[in-house]
Amino acid sequence: MSEKIGFLGLGHMGAPMAANLVRAGYEVLAFDPVPAAREQAERDGATVVETAAGTTEANTVITMLPNGKLVLEVYRELLAAAKPNTLFIDCSTIDVADAKAAAELATAAGHRAIDAPVSGGVGGAQAGTLTFMAGGEAADFGAALPLLEVMGGKVVHCGASGVGQAAKICNNMLLGASMVALSESLVLGEKLGLSHQSFFDVVSTASGQSWALTTYCPVPGPVPTSPANNDYQPGFATALMAKDLGLAANALRANGVASEIGLLAAQIYERFNQTDGGRDFSAIVTDIRNRSDQEGGQ
Ligand code: NAD
């Protein structure tokens, strides 16, 4: 009989991740409050359960939920019902403090828990090539590893509980800030008569080089696969970048980091999210250009 895995949160990311576990031979006990998500999971071969508690028949329970408040709510609901020593794996992107609190609740109730947020987006979830960054006890990480390797292409144990979330927000803070800096630089180049291609040809091999430029160039042309060439369809939506930068800002403040750029990037993406949350986060260059044209014309 195949091993059972509980899976809660069958959204953009969770649905393909659960489908990959099914394909690898696991029996996935899947729950989501949204009927369409449950129907999709059934088509993907999962065993759909009608309540969250229905997932606790498994010895391992994975969550892929929108925020930390929900993760804590779901943990509180499941912990009493779960079999002793159940392994809880939270793959959602949530506050470091919430991740630690969730793991503490789980261990206090006699279970094991790791945080294992991901990067790689919906494409990575579908292809089973996500990067997992995990936090928790080494033995618990080891127990989770075979499952993470089904859903991911790279799995890194970053440290103690919450440190997986720390890696996630540190990376995304750097990405958000570098996309803003790159976009301001590109708009300055435009004003100075520097073509996008010339900018790319110089900077992509010079000291200003970054992933944001060489893989994800925010203007059409130099990198044909970047969302800029597809009218800024995500990709990685601005709403998600704003969320992650908000989590980074919380952590910067909570830990007394003398941050300026990280906090500013969070503000910039929060403002852009008010109007353009559904566009790719690299569309920030269009906002900088529009505001430059308005302000420059005054
Ligand atoms: P989503 O909103 O598409 O999916 C979340 C799902 O959780 C929804 O289907 C929702 O109905 C379900 N849900 C809500 N409450 C629930 C409950 N009590 N029990 C079970 N299910 C419940 O979000 P997503 O894009 O799949 O993202 C999930 C997580 O992954 C988020 O934390 C996000 O920040 C993170 N993430 C997303 C991406 C991405 O590109 N979408 C990339 C990396 C990380």
Automatic annotation (TrEMBL):
Pfam families according to UniProt: NAD_binding_11, NAD_binding_2
Domain 3-hydroxyisobutyrate dehydrogenase-like NAD-binding: start-end pairs: 162-285
Record NCBIfam families: HIBADH
Protein name: 3-hydroxyisobutyrate dehydrogenase
Catalysis: reaction(s): 3-hydroxy-2-methylpropanoate + NAD(+) = 2-methyl-3-oxopropanoate + NADH + H(+)
Enzyme class: oxidoreductase
InterPro entries in UniProt: 3-OH-isobutyrate_DH-rel_CS, 6-PGluconate_DH-like_C_sf, 6PGD_dom2, 6PGDH_NADP-bd, HIBADH, HIBADH-like_NADP-bd, HIBADH-related, NAD(P)-bd_dom_sf
Keywords tagged on the record: Branched-chain amino acid catabolism, NAD, Oxidoreductase
Domain of life: Bacteria
Keyword ATP-binding: no
Known EC number: 1.1.1.31
Pathway membership: Amino-acid degradation; L-valine degradation
Cross-referenced SUPFAM superfamilies: 6-phosphogluconate dehydrogenase C-terminal domain-like, NAD(P)-binding Rossmann-fold domains
Start and end residues of each 6-phosphogluconate dehydrogenase NADP-binding domain: 4-159
Family recorded in the similarity comment: Belongs to the HIBADH-related family.
Source taxonomy: Bacteria, Bacillati, Actinomycetota, Actinomycetes, Mycobacteriales
